[in-house]
Amino acid sequence: MANYYVLLGPPGAGKGTQAKLISEKIGVAHISTGDLLRENVKNRTVLGLEAQGYMNSGRLVPDDLIISMVRERIALPDCSKGALMDGFPRTVAQAEAFDKMLQDAFNAKIACVPCIEVPAVLLIERLSGRTMCPNGHVFHQVFNPPAAEGVCDECGAALYQRDDDKVETVTKRIEVYENQTAPLIAYYDQAGILARVDGTQQIDSVTAQIFSALGIDGA
Ligand code: AP5
Fold first, then answer.
1. CB-defined site of ligand 1, < 6 Å
2. Which fold has domain 3-119+175-214?
3. Backbone phi, psi, residue 156, to 5°
4. How far is CA 211 from CA 44, 61, 144, 218, in A?
5. Is the Cβ–Cβ distance between 36 and 73 less than 8 Å?
């Protein structure tokens, strides 16, 4: 049976780290709107050129652009087996559009929304120490270091720091999350599908909490 999940949480909570581990384990597509946008920026597409200014200043890309990007992605064949959304939805308008997309495309509803909770002071520490490779593998200089400094363990590519991980942009992203995305906690809680996860624990402990929320044996 196909299942659709949304990973909610502030910037740096560990959504990307967990989404990669979990989607591989349960065999559903991992859809990160941040990764899709960065790919568009890299390839200098019309969407990428429009999105870049919003991303670099820590603001959200407009809903209509995001919703049509996700609508195209969800139509690809791998999503018929289920999907784990990472960084989407981020506004109530996106959440309502996603509910409709799932209904229209798969006659499905979101099964569960794990919300990874981490206080702001830790988020800044995590994002300012984050490095990643062009293929989306994520590390941290202290909490999750690669075996060889500056080199991705998974694919050998050089690691870099994201443009929007500077402290002033991170602070803006956290503020945007509080104002525009945090209302989704109540939205999904009212729908009875929200599961709160303590994101301050170590990575494998957070993974175990999410598996438990999804009702899946993660062993
Ligand atoms: P996006 O790429 O989605 O960024 P984000 O939501 O801000 O999330 P991050 O990728 O920064 O953090 P994460 O929670 O994935 O944490 P990670 O696992 O890397 O979006 C970027 C921009 O694109 C937005 O600002 C916006 O402009 C635009 N955008 C994207 N989607 C949009 C949408 N739907 N609508 C509008 N605009 C949109 O972990 C962080 C670090 O912590 C890593 O170094 C990791 O190794 C480490 N870490 C992870 N877990 C732990 C742990 N348990 N303990 C210790 N360290 C840990």
1. 9, 11-17, 33-34, 37, 54-55, 58-61, 66, 87-88, 90, 94, 126-127, 130, 138-140, 143-144, 164, 173, 199, 202-203, 206
2. Rossmann fold (3.40.50)
3. 80, 0
4. 37, 30, 21, 6
5. yes
CA nearest ligand 1 atom 54, residue: 202
Residue 151 has phi, psi (to 5 degrees) of -125, 135
Residue type, 121: V
Q: What is the pLDDT of residues 169-191, one digit of tens each?
A: 999 999 999 999 999 999 999 99
Query: Domain limits of the chain?
Result: 3-119+175-214
Which residue of 116, 126, 137 sits with most ligand 1 atoms within 8 Å of its CB, as the best mutation to test the pocket?
Answer: 126
* pTM confidence score: 0.95
